[in-house]
Amino acid sequence: MTHLVLGSAGQIGSHLVEYLKRQGEKVYEMDILNNEWEDLRIQDNMILDEYLVECDIVYFLAFDVGGAKYLEKYQDTSEFILNNMKIMSNTFDSIWQSGKPFIFASSQMAEMSYSSYGMLKALGEKITKDRKGVLVKFWNVYGKEHDEEKSHVITDFIKMAKNDGVIKMRTDGTESRQFLYAEDACEALFHLAKHWSKLPKDKEYHVSSFEWNTIREIADFLDVISSCKVISSTRKDETQRNAMNEPNRFILKYWKPKTSLKDGIMKLYNLED
Fold it and tell me: How many CB atoms lie within 10 A of CB 145?
């Protein structure tokens, strides 16, 4: 197969590109971080149209997004909202005109109406369902990251533990999340792509570990393996407000996560400089 990864330099996209290449697949990459002319906010983007002609499947992972600290800072700004509206409008139109099968990457936050990011993803879900794409909801995917401004909690904690010997938590750590190792997320996407024609398009495919862990548990585990100090805050989580919506388990008919949270953290800990 020939794969087109939109958002190929992002948190999930960068891992997916590497994963697909290891499987011997042909991959086209597109991300504004690669070249300014790969900006999906550009209407009638010729690069996108050329790639769409050549590919067999499209992964729509591109979005202006980051971890909690990035969302808290930017998600309610007009620039953030308009960036994502332009990305979705232009990209969905181009994919629709090409007739190529696609997978749209949403988030568990699509169910959180108080979040601008969540509302934008919810709109993307509606378009995906109307246009018979495959809707994938990711639950806190973690892996090696390169953009510190957009980094997520596990990466942040590992860097603090290794570089400073102190993990300074942004919250009291009582909020719970379901975390998924990036390699497992990539395996799920690849499996769905290979079986795209046979997948029910009226289903949601939630890609998760299906296990809850608190942020404090992550900090404490890093304390055990690195002997760092953990300093918690009295502040509550305002990004997801500890919403604990349960994921749909339909995807387990096709794929199951393999990497435990502790094993994933250890792998990432050993990768980080």
Answer: 23
CA 108/CA 112 separation, integer angstroms: 8
Query: What global pTM score does this model have?
Result: 0.91
> Is it true that domain 2-271 has CATH number 1.10.600.10?
no
For 51, other C-beta atoms within 10 Å of its C-beta total 22
Please write the tens of the pLDDT for every residue from 3-20.
999 999 998 999 999 999
Residue in the structure block whose two tokens are 């953290």: 265
Residue (of 229, 149, 213, 203) closest to 181 by Cα position? 213
- Beta-carbon contacts of residue 198 (< 8 Å; ≥ 6 apart): none
Cβ neighbours for 238, distance < 8 A, ≥ 6 positions apart: 72
Is residue 211 a contact partner of residue 178, using CB atoms and an 8 Å limit?
Answer: yes
Q: Where are the domains of the chain?
A: 2-271
List pLDDT tens digits, range 54-87: 999 999 999 988 877 888 899 999 999 999 999 9
Give the amino acid at 195.
H
Query: Which tokens belong to 3?
Result: 């794969």
Please state, in angstroms and rounded to a whole number, the distance separating the CA atoms of residues 238 and 194. Answer: 38
CA dihedral 162, 211, 200, 1 (to 10 degrees): 30
Per-state percent for the chain, helix, strand, coil, to nearest 5: 45, 15, 35
First and final C-alpha spacing in the chain: 34
- Which residues have CB under 8 Å from 65's CB, separation 6+? 10, 71, 84, 117, 150
